[in-house]
Design brief:
The complex is a heteropentamer of chains A (643), B (466), C (172), D (104) and E (491). Chain B is mainly alpha-helical and 466 residues long. Chain B contains 21 helices and 2 strands.
């Protein structure tokens, strides 16, 4: 099979599912839509795996380094010579990896949803949206063109919007989907302007050309660096703005506010979009442009690192206080993406120094597994208990044995307990930070302790603690379809760490040998275990300890519980400043001043017309006087003035 | 003297018709219906004859001259009179003095013909009087109505006053140049202050007849008071005739004073349009409304006249032709409605479309044509007027002109709105239009549409103007 | 100053004074009489200028026709002794002002203009000549205006008859 | 005082003209307004005659003009009086200010 | 292809509609006529591409020239280039949809369809005429039907709106008239677009005439601050009226700004480009903010039209080939989109009898089709890739960015900012109208009928055809905007 077509089929199959189910699902495919979607995605997954195999083991490596291939490129819209949006496929290690991750997690979610979403009225719609999302995400990861990635970026955003708002009759879901879209849209503004700047600086939109123009010293780069604005070069601005786009989609501080709310969507959707795939798009974007960031604009890369670190810790702190399990997971996601982000930030280009990059991608990969697992497990719990609140749960390990085990594996993975997947990737990240930016390293270390704490707080609250749930009768754990993905993902979460990632993914395509240093690992593992034990001490059994603890640090607790009031600040800015200070005055101005002037013209005309009606007095003698005055006036005018 | 029969054919035919009517009146008389039909036939014949035997030449020294263009102008007026005789047949049938009315109208028409053809100031003055005194009498034909006699009184007094001014001007010109013949005058004028003064006097009299601001004040009162047949005659035929004369007087006779009258025309055109529009905005009576709208139209005619080239003449002639159709259609509808219901107010037109779609469409078409909206001929007419005026690249002036076009649209649309959109508890009941009226209205409608789209009509005017 | 001059000034004075009185007296009948005198004064001036024909026409048409007509109509419409209503003083002042301006302007232009009095031989203006010219169709003839005026008179006659004849009151 | 000439006549006629106009402006009675019109017309006649006499005596334009003006004045006066009488019938008055129904 | 057919088809339709006996006949005649127009537009498209394919690079294709009014040198000169073809396609799409949407008009059906078709006639004529006088003729033809459509079939304060619209548009066209006359007299008496484009008009004259023409046409396309007819006009018009108004009529202005003002007066365009950009930027952002505050669905779309049409003017003002291409794309895209938006609003209004956003909720449940279309059009409006709005806006942005100085940059960024504000108001509307709990009183409402489905489908197809495969439109427009840019001669 033609390589281009083969890879193109990977996103196109879900798209076909979207079109098919979107147009005919509601009427004709009500029952079978889930199966259709899943089968299509299965095909995609198989293709993706096959592609990965072929890329990594058959043709990808040339002269000791993985190469970038563009097997397909179609000029979609040409702006001017050389600057065009091309729809193409760019094959390199990270895009292939992402293909696998996305299709795999998506497949899991598809299968899981067969059980989870059973009986929903808009079942076909759900699957069609899933298809759309998968298509967009796949398109995003294989983009060969900066604008192409933006296009799919937006499509991803809208499918996320649609899926969050799936329960459209729930006002909170509506608010959440709007918020998610608008916040990311705001970030995309930065992205868009960044694209404009970069494309103008480099004279192209194609990734390969763009990167080579901007990174290799030549006229292109010189031009891009030379023009400055407010002290920074054009390309710096461009890179920073592009990063804002990425930060928005990846829920980095301070653009993260949409992510927790996005949990209003169905839980499998959260697993797919808001844990495993879409939210890492920002990381992916930075990775995609990594040469530009690291070579041309190291300053921006540092910002990336700090933003990642701050997001990681803030999210972790907030996660410790939340009671809605999905929200806890959401903040955890944010925190983990922070890890990935700062891993990129502390990386350099090429060779050993590129460890952070590899680590980041590795963590992305493992995180996809265990975070999807966590969400799906949480989904199973919610499915069983019909509530998101921790206080309604407890002691579920007896009722949900499989969920319990898989959830535990995931928690151990995320806490960085060896030998689970999270341990390996996090270890690499910390190592990279340690070497390049000690400050970030310490933050990260503390955060990983917090991570272990809040994850196990969650775990113990759900599966141990006191039984709260009101459902007297014993229900089943959920169907076969829900269990399969859990088990598969658990296997992934447990074993993915052993993949020698550095062999395949590195900044320059060459092999990066990962080496483990037991001395270095000791501290993080210890911190993680400490977190776990504290959580166990506090939450394994029902006790008064958590209450006391929160009471002792109440103000901090309150602040964290209220997510540092960032939502309130946003609300203030939007409601008070944008709506009241810009929107309302604009509307008022339009209605009263601009339109007022138009109406005034009309009124004034009518007024004048009314005022001069006296001239037409009906007195014939007065008419004659006007006549004579007119004659005299004209005569004087033309005899004396206008000769 | 063979030429006499050909060159003066229009005048002779009209005179003949007057005498036929006079004899009928003096003999036993006839029923109104048949008399009207006869007159209509005679007028139609007159109109048709107008197309034949066009020749250029002059008679009686230079007192009377004619060119194909003049013949065309006269024939446009013929057409107008014919249309009036059809459109106002409802009122005409009822009037007890039908032959007299026609005799007066035709005398006035005869006066206009002589006026258009006049070759010296004496002929001009006499024919002007011939064209206005009978009209004053016509204005009083609704003998029982107070308003009619008030209108007639205003008309005769103002026009006497204006002819006084005119005559004073003529006398001064005569004194300053020693001649009253147009041909000699143009070589004698040198722009001395006295001549300017005399010219202003003369100009004012023209302006009075043409209803140019500030000499327009009589117009609305007279229009409103007069019977609608007289009003339409005044507003269409009189206006047209005087416009023809005005333009040829300025171009032929007062060419040496061109710089003076250009500015004068610009000022007065603006004043006329603005005042006409402002007054038209708030009129209630349809006739009064049409009076002010016609004042505004005159403003546009002045714009074209100011161009001082042949484009000005042809566009004015063309516009008058269109104006005849459009304005007469409007008056025709108003006449039918007034005749059947006695209603003259625009408010009474509310909801007219429900009951009388035919009349509404005609009136709408006419108003659109007056407003200059395509595809009606009025669009072309107005546009050519403005184009002619724009030749001097006087952008400020032209902008004022076109903005007035917009204001005028407002009040034309007001009537359209009343007819189509406004609700009315007691709309005008369904009106039966006589066959003649219907025919004339359709004729007007056809004219409104076709005169614009058939571009050879304009080309013909241009051709005979050369 | 010779006798002829004196006559002229007297005529002029008569004309103007009577004119002023005619527009200012509050007795309508007197106004008509003053008008009559004005017209006669003008006729006198025509005589003084040697234009007997015009003077005659003036007397016949104006004095004998129009003034009589006016007096008849006064009788028809008004009691003779009744005083005319007063005009508003503002209107009077404004009119006077406008009229003075007009008069001043006109006279200024007239006096500034150089009328070249010709030495051309005046042609005779006896009635026969005038009559011949009136009906001549030549370049110097006035047949056409004559016809026009006759049409006008016809039309005016018709108009007057229609308007002024008492029509039957419409009862229906 | 000097020899009476053209300018004297022009003065008289102009004065008459404006007296007539004044009358036309201020007289409220329709018939007196008509009389003012006659004054105006007469002043014009005087102008024509004066010009004809002093400036262009070799032609008779002015003279004929005067003749025709007189004729027309008669016609005009006749029609005007007819209209006034008609007005009197309907308004029972010939005061111009009683006939101001048509306005604005 | 004979371009006269494009005028004749609506003309025949209009006359036939007037002669029809029953409402049923009127509807089907109009529908058939509109389909014929659609087919003609496609035939034109293919013929055009065929002709270009054979290497015919003449500026205008299918030219026809008839001398009418020789005295004024007025010719009935027709011809099309890529831009015109695109606009004609747009018009034909909107016409079909408009006819379908109005299927249930019971009041004066005949007149309604007559006026609708007349409006279409004006638009077709406008887009194909190459003589300024004829162009002006068609421009004005398209005004009065709007007045009547709003005044008779409209709602709300319709008289006021109709008047305002007619007067402001007429005012605009009056300025256009002055501009055209200025061109005529300063060019040696020619109205012909092509021969005018070859003349060099003095710079001083250009700087007088250009603002007249641009503002004149600008009024039609909601140039700030002459846009106030838009909200009132749109909101009062009947559904098809709004569709035609926003979908076709506003495009007349944009087309005129480009084809007449900018193309014929390049010096003037350069001189005033910055002012245009400022006004357009204001319109874009300010329109968007004003939209945010609107409560009535039609007002929302009307104000958003102001914002979107700002893009058109921005693209023109930027004076680069890409930006101009983008401006035309935006015209086509906005035309389709806004027509669809109004169609949807009309459908919703027909059922709920309200247009207040706050009074609606959860319509998705009862009207999935309508709501889906509402989603699509909303997303198109906020520039979602895959729908036409994205393509057009991005082309404009890319074109604008080609101007490397700070002023243009800032203007572009301001314009970009509107994509966020647009998202805010669109989502607000969608969230309130389509989503949320369904209202009790709305539970009985039904989804779209066949005619409404067809109308929406046609426009959605148009939107997708541009959104998914923009290449063809781009190829169609590029050469034409290149001609314009070559004349302007910069960049």
């Amino acid at each position: 099979m033609n390589l281009g077509l083969q890879i193109a089929l990977i996103p196109l199959l879900p798209l076909a599912g979207f079109v098919l189910l979107g147009l005919f699902g509601r009427k004709y495919l009500k029952k079978s839509s889930g199966i259709i979607g899943t089968i299509l995605l299965l095909a995609s997954t198989v293709l993706a795996l096959y592609t990965a195999y072929e890329y990594f083991f058959v043709y990808g490596k040339v002269a000791g380094a993985y190469q970038k291939f563009v097997p397909l490129s179609y000029t979609w819209l040409e702006f001017s010579k050389g600057v065009s949006i091309d729809m193409g496929i760019l094959l390199d290690p990270i895009s292939v990896m992402m293909l696998v991750v996305v299709t795999f997690v998506s497949l899991m979610v598809h299968i899981y949803s067969l059980g989870y979403m059973k009986g929903e009225e808009r079942f076909p719609t759900y699957y069609s949206f899933l298809g759309l999302f998968t298509f967009s995400m796949l398109g995003l990861v294989i983009s060969s063109n900066l604008f192409q990635i933006y296009i799919f970026w937006e499509l991803v955003g809208v499918s996320s919007f649609l899926l969050i708002g799936y329960y459209y009759n729930k006002p909170s879901a509506v608010a959440a989907c709007k918020k998610a879209f608008i916040v990311t849209r705001f970030a995309d503004l930065g992205f868009l302007i960044g694209i404009l700047i970069l494309s103008y600086s480099s004279g192209t939109l194609d990734f390969n050309t763009l990167i080579s123009t901007l990174t290799s010293s030549g006229t292109g780069q010189a031009k891009a660096v030379a023009s400055t604005f407010l002290g920074a070069s054009a390309v710096t601005w461009g890179a920073a703005l592009v990063f804002i786009g990425g930060a928005g989609k990846s829920a980095m501080f301070p653009l993260h506010i949409w992510l927790p709310d996005a949990m209003e969507g169905p839980t499998p959707v959260s697993a797919l979009i808001h844990a495993a795939t879409m939210v890492v798009a920002g990381v992916f974007l930075v990775a995609r442009l990594f040469p530009v960031f690291s070579i041309t604009t190291p300053g921006v890369l540092e910002i990336v690192g700090w933003v990642g670190a701050i997001s990681a810790i803030i999210a972790a702190i907030i996660a410790c206080t939340q009671t809605d399990i999905k929200r806890v997971l959401a903040y955890s996601t944010m925190s983990q993406i922070g890890f990935m982000m700062f891993a990129l930030g502390v990386s350099k280009y090429g060779g050993e120094a590129g460890l952070g990059y590899t680590a980041s991608m590795f963590h992305l990969f493992t995180h996809a597994m265990f975070k999807a697992l966590l969400f799906l497990g949480a989904g199973a719990v919610i499915h069983y208990i019909h509530s998101n609140e921790m206080k309604d749960m407890g002691g579920l390990r007896k009722y949900l044995p499989i969920t319990h085990i898989t959830f535990l594996i995931a928690c151990l993975a995320i806490a960085g307990v060896p030998p689970f997947a999270g341990f390996f990737s996090k270890e690499e990240i910390l190592l990279a930070a340690y070497h390049n930016n000690p400050a970030i390293y310490w933050i990260a270390l503390f955060t990983s302790g917090l991570t272990a704490f809040y994850m196990f707080r969650l775990y113990f609250s759900i599966f141990w603690n006191k039984e709260h749930h009101p459902h007297g009768e014993k229900q089943s754990e959920g169907g076969f379809s829900m269990m399969i993905p859990l088990i598969l993902l658990a296997i992934g979460a447990a074993a993915a760490g052993f993949i020698p990632f550095g062999k395949y993914v590195s900044t320059d395509g060459t092999v990066l040998e990962s080496h483990f240093d037991l001395q270095f690992s000791a501290l993080p593992v210890a911190v993680g275990l400490a977190g776990i034990f504290i959580a166990m001490w506090l939450y394994r059994k029902e006790s008064e300890r958590p209450g006391k603890l929160t009471a002792s640090i109440y103000s901090i607790y309150k602040t964290a519980y209220n997510k540092f009031y960032i939502d309130e600040i946003y609300t203030f800015i939007t409601k008070k400043i944008i709506f009241n200070l810009i929107g309302k005055p604009a509307a008022w101005f339009d209605k009263n001043v601009v339109d007022g002037l138009v109406n005034l013209t009309g009124k004034a005309t009518a007024e004048v017309s009314e005022d001069i009606k006296k001239v037409q007095s009906g007195k014939v003698q007065q008419y004659a006087i006007y006549f004579l005055v007119g004659v005299i006036g004209l005569a004087v005018l033309f005899i004396y003035i206008w000769k | 003297m063979n030429d006499l029969w050909i060159l003066m054919k229009s005048e002779l035919v009209i005179t003949l018709i007057i005498f036929i009517l006079l004899f009928i009146k003096l003999s036993r008389g006839m029923k109104n219906e048949s008399l009207l039909a006869l007159t209509q036939i005679l007028l139609l014949a007159n109109f048709i004859i107008g197309f034949f035997f066009n020749k250029q030449g002059s008679l009686f020294g230079d007192m009377f001259y004619t060119t194909p263009l003049i013949v065309l102008q006269k024939n446009i007026l013929n057409l107008g009179v014919y249309l009036i005789s059809l459109l106002c047949s409802g009122w005409l049938k009822k009037t007890p003095h039908l032959p007299e009315f026609f005799m007066l109208m035709l005398s006035a028409l005869l006066g206009m013909f002589f006026m258009i053809s006049s070759g010296n100031l004496l002929m001009f003055y006499l024919s002007l009087e011939l064209a206005s005194i009978p009209v004053a009498a016509m204005a009083n034909f609704d003998l029982e109505k107070k308003r009619s006699s008030e209108g007639a009184m205003k008309m005769i007094l103002s026009s006497a006053f204006s002819s006084g001014i005119l005559l004073f001007g003529i006398s001064l010109i005569y004194g300053a140049t020693g001649t009253i013949s147009f041909a000699q005058l143009s070589s004698q004028l040198d722009g001395s202050p006295l001549q300017i003064l005399a010219f202003v006097f003369l100009f004012a009299a023209f302006a009075f007849k043409l209803s140019v601001v500030p000499f327009h004040l009589w117009t609305a009162d007279v229009y409103e008071g007069s019977p609608i047949a007289a009003t339409s005659f005044l507003s269409v035929i009189s206006k047209g005739a005087i416009a023809f004369v005005f333009i040829s007087a300025l171009y032929r006779v007062f060419q040496p004073l061109q710089e003076t009258w250009y500015i004068m025309l610009v000022i007065l055109a603006i004043a006329t349009m603005v005042i006409g529009n402002l007054f038209a905005l708030r009129q209630q009576n349809i006739k009064r409304f049409l009076a002010f709208s016609s004042i505004a139209q005159v403003g546009f005619i002045l714009v074209a006249i100011s161009s001082n080239d042949s484009a000005g003449i042809s566009s004015v002639v063309y516009f008058i032709l269109i104006y005849v159709f459009s304005n007469l259609a409007a008056f025709g509808v108003a006449s039918v409605i007034t005749d059947q219901t006695g209603k003259e107010n625009i408010d009474d037109y509310k909801g007219l479309y429900k009951t009388n779609p035919f009349l509404t469409w005609i009136l709408t078409l006419a108003l659109f044509s007056l407003a200059g909206i395509p595809p009606t001929a009025g669009f072309f007419g107005k546009l050519f007027l403005i184009s002619a005026g724009a030749a001097k690249a006087n952008y400020g002036f032209i902008i004022v002109v076109v903005l007035n076009l917009v204001i005028s649209l407002y009040y034309y649309l007001r009537i359209v709105r009343a007819m189509f959109m406004d609700k009315n508890e007691q709309p005008v009941e369904k009106i039966k239009v006589t066959a003649a009226g219907k025919f004339a209205l359709i004729l007007c409608a056809a004219g409104i549409v076709l005169v614009g789209l058939l571009s050879w009509i304009y080309d013909y005017i241009v051709m005979i103007n050369k | 100053m010779n006798g002829s001059d004196i006559i002229f000034y007297l005529l002029a004075a008569l004309t103007l004074v009577c004119a002023v009185l005619s527009v200012s007296t509050r007795q309508i009948f007197r106004a008509a009489i003053y008008l009559l005198f004005t017209l006669i004064g003008i006729a006198g001036i025509y005589f003084w200028l040697d234009y007997q024909f015009i003077a005659a026409v003036q007397i016949v048409v104006y004095v004998g026709g129009i003034v009589v007509l006016i007096i008849f109509s006064i009788f028809l419409t008004q009691q003779a002794g009744e005083k005319l209503p007063k005009q508003k003083i503002g209107r009077k002042i404004f009119s006077a002002l406008a009229v003075f301006c007009g008069f001043g302007l006109t006279m200024l232009q007239v006096y500034q203009h150089d009328f070249i009095e010709t030495e051309n031989e005046a042609i005779t203006t006896n009635v026969a000549d005038i009559g011949r010219k009136m009906l001549s169709t030549n370049a110097e003839g006035y047949a056409l205006p004559f016809e026009v005026v006759s049409m006008l008179l016809l039309a005016a006659m018709i108009g007057c008859i229609v308007i002024a004849l008492k029509s039957k009151p419409e009862t229906k | 005082m000097m020899q009476p000439g053209l300018y004297h006549l022009l003065f008289i006629s102009a004065a008459l003209f404006f007296i007539g106009i004044y009358g036309f402006f201020t007289r409220r009675n329709l018939i007196t307004m008509l009389m003012s019109i006659e004054l105006i017309l007469n002043s014009v006649n005087l102008n024509f005659i004066a010009f004809n006499k002093y400036l262009w005596p070799h032609k008779m334009d002015g003279l004929f003009f005067t003749v025709f003006i007189i004729a027309i004045a008669a016609a005009e006066a006749a029609v005007a009086i007819a209209i006034i009488i008609n007005l009197y019938r309907s308004h029972n008055s010939i005061d111009v200010e009683n006939a101001e129904e048509l306005k604005y | 292809m004979n371009l006269l057919l494009l005028i004749l088809a609506p003309l025949v339709t209009a006359v036939a509609a007037l002669l029809a006996r029953s409402k049923w006949q009127v509807r089907w005649i109009s529908f058939a006529g509109s389909v014929v127009q659609l087919i003609l537009a496609f035939v034109l498209l293919f013929a055009f591409q065929n002709e270009r394919g054979t290497g015919n690079a003449t500026q205008m294709l299918f030219e026809q020239n008839y001398n009418i009014f020789p005295a004024w040198n007025i010719n009935f000169h027709l011809g099309v280039d890529g831009i015109s073809v695109a606009m004609i396609l747009l018009t034909s799409f909107v016409v079909v949809a408009g006819v379908l949407v109005s299927w249930n008009i019971e009041k004066m059906t005949k007149e309604f369809y007559f006026l609708l078709t007349l409006l279409a006639l004006g638009a077709y004529g406008f887009f194909i005429s190459l003589d300024l006088f004829v162009l002006f003729f068609f421009l004005e033809i398209a005004v009065i039907p709007k007045y009547l459509l709003i005044g008779i079939w409209g709602s709300g304060k319709k008289e006021y709106s109709a008047n305002k619209l007619a007067l402001m548009l007429m005012g605009g066209s009056a300025l256009v008239l002055v501009g055209i006359l200025g061109l005529y007299f300063s060019s040696g008496h020619s109205f012909d677009l092509l021969s005018l484009s070859k003349m060099n008009i003095a710079k001083g004259t250009q700087s007088i005439i250009f603002p007249l023409l641009f503002v004149g046409f600008g009024v039609f396309t909601a140039l700030f601050p002459f846009h106030t007819w838009v909200p009132d006009g749109h909101s009062s018009a009947p559904t098809a009226g709004s569709m035609f108004l926003a979908g076709i009529s506003m495009k007349l202005g944009g087309y005129g700004c480009l084809r007449v003002a900018t193309y014929l007066l390049p010096e003037g365009a350069k001189e005033y480009a910055n002012i245009i950009i400022i006004l357009a930027s204001i319109a874009i952002l300010y329109g968007a903010f004003a939209t945010m505050m609107q409560k009535d669905l039609k007002y929302i779309n009307a104000y958003s039209s102001i914002s979107h049409c700002g893009f058109v003017l921005l693209g023109i003002g930027m004076l680069t080939k890409t930006a101009i291409t983008g401006a035309v794309m935006q015209m086509v895209s906005h035309g389709l989109m806004t027509a669809l938006f109004f169609a949807v609003i009309g459908m919703i209004y027909d059922r709920t009898h309200t247009r207040q956003v706050s009074e609606m909720s959860g319509l998705m449940r009862m009207m999935p089709f309508i709501s889906t279309v509402f989603f699509i059009v909303g997303l198109c409006s906020l520039g979602l890739p895959g729908l036409s709005g994205f393509v057009a806006e991005m082309t404009i942005f890319m074109g604008s960015w080609e101007n490397a100085d700070m002023f243009h940059r800032i203007a572009t960024i301001i314009a970009c900012m509107s994509i966020v504000v647009t998202a805010v108001y669109i989502l607000r509307a969608i969230g309130q109208v389509a989503m949320g709990p369904a209202k009790e009183s709305f539970l009985q409402l039904t989804d779209a009928k066949w005619n409404e489905r067809m109308a929406a489908a046609i426009l959605v197809i148009g939107i997708l055809a541009i959104g998914i495969i923009p290449g063809w439109l781009n190829e169609l427009l590029k050469p034409a905007s290149e001609v314009i840019m070559n004349k302007i001669g910069a960049k």
